[in-house]
Amino acid sequence: MAQEQQQGVEQSLKEETPKVAVKTWREDLKRPWHLVRCGVGELLASVLLVRITSTSCAEFPGNGSLLQTALTYAFVYATLVQILASTTGHVNPFVTIGFNLMGQLSVIKVLVITNSQYVGSVLGSLLYKYSTPEAVRGANLCAMRVPEELGVTWWQTMALEAILSFVLFLVILAVNDQRMGIPAGYRPPIIGMTLAGCLLMGIKYGSGSLNPLRALGPAVIGEYQVYHLIYWGGPQIGILVAVGMWKFILGPYKMAKQ
């Protein structure tokens, strides 16, 4: 009897699981206005993300506490995800690539979105530079760095970037999987709370990015690329592992089989 019930559950999950079609570049080229909307939205969101989060490092009196930095980043990111919910809502190139690996985005859409994000990151740092008094801009326009003076090594920061990005992207995959039944309006707050928790743990290790956009703009405009690759390698590893875990182990159908 128990075996029959288990088979029934598995069959119903198979029937209810939405078939996600792999989008082809030809299909996306038939909708150029949608590509424009995605690109412009991600460009604007990336500008705002870098501009606002960089302010946490500005040397104003009483500015820059751990809690303030983490919550500013998390709240802004969650807000931008909600704003872009009708198009993409990634605001992170590795999240975009992750959804491509999940079969939900075509290569051409990935190229449009990620290049828009990179340009937006640089423009956001430029905006921060010219809209903040020079005396309080902070070191290298708030570029990401490893606190070597505390004994933290580059590989420790990179490892933590990978671990925390893994956690964050697993949550992003979970809340965006229709089989989980999470209402769309709950997704940005859940993602924001997860990001806040990761940042509260990681910032003191130099792991306050989890997103290459946060590192790219200040590294280019602030001319400080000493640790830059750490903030690309770490999140990339974390997101690749998260995709594999969700597709083959932790996805709803797999959990039901256990």
Automatic annotation (TrEMBL):
One of its GO terms (cellular component) is plasma membrane. InterPro entries: Aquaporin-like, Aquaporin_transptr, MIP. It is a multi-pass membrane protein. Keywords: Membrane, Transmembrane, Transmembrane helix, Transport. It is found in: Membrane. One of its GO terms (molecular function) is water channel activity. This is Aquaporin. It holds the Pfam family MIP. It comes from the Eukaryota. Belongs to the MIP/aquaporin (TC 1.A.8) family. The chain crosses the membrane at residues 35-54, 74-95, 107-128, 154-176, 188-206, 226-250.
